[in-house]
Amino acid sequence: MTRLRRVCVFCGSAPGARPAYAAAARAFGALLARRGIDLVWGGGNVGLMGAVADAALAAGGRALGVIPEALAERELAHVGATELHVVRTMHERKALMADLSDAFAALPGGLGTLDETFEILTWAQLGLHAKPVGLLDVEGYWGPLLGFLDDALDEGFVRPADRARILVEHDPARLLEELGRERVPLRR
Ligand code: AMP
Q1: What is the 113 CA–ligand 1 centroid distance (Å)?
Q2: Residue 95 needs a FRET pair 20 to 30 A away by CA distance; which of 21, 105, 125, 128 works?
Q3: Cα(11) to centroid of ligand 1, in Å?
Q4: What is the pLDDT of residues 45-77, one digit of tens each?
Q5: Which fold has domain 6-178?
Q6: 14 in ligand 1 pocket by Cβ < 6 Å?
Q7: Where are the domains of the chain?
Q8: Tens digits of per-residue pLDDT, 70-123?
Q9: Cβ neighbours of residue 58 under 8 Å, at least 6 residues apart?
């Protein structure tokens, strides 16, 4: 097992339509804290972003936020964050979140979550990093996206090694275990 020190969570700035989404975000945040792993997240206090950070902090963990100055107001920058890095742009946000973290977990979310998750997967595909990336599949939320990626593989646009890199688990503890598993970087 690799010792994970910091895990980056990408997730919705909305709470989503089902209570299970926020419950999963809270479970994941609390689990990180119990394992002594710092949370790296978008620094916001809204939706699932707020839920994951609140839970990590309430369980005695550390939450490191990275927020662009233009969003600090809209996403209500979390005043309880252990560290809040205010950056200039969205691109700086993604780069700093990536640098700070040993692994990445995507919880349910919208366009921003998809953008962040696909950018980190694309960087892995290009060999710019070899950090694990996983999806927490709450109530089958990621199923249609994974089906699409399987079609993209069949159609020759996604390589098998890049599809295989995406870890998927329903249970927060299983996902964390998978993210921490020692693995040889996939060959491209
Ligand atoms: P959403 O999944 O759309 O609710 O967004 C989740 C988070 O992703 C929010 O903090 C958004 O501000 C953030 N986000 C959206 N687009 C980008 C981007 N291009 N780069 C970095 N963060 C983004």
Answers
A1: 6
A2: 21
A3: 8
A4: 999 999 999 999 999 999 999 999 999 888 889
A5: Rossmann fold (3.40.50)
A6: yes
A7: 6-178
A8: 998 888 899 999 999 999 999 999 999 999 999 999 999 999 999 999 999 999
A9: 30, 33
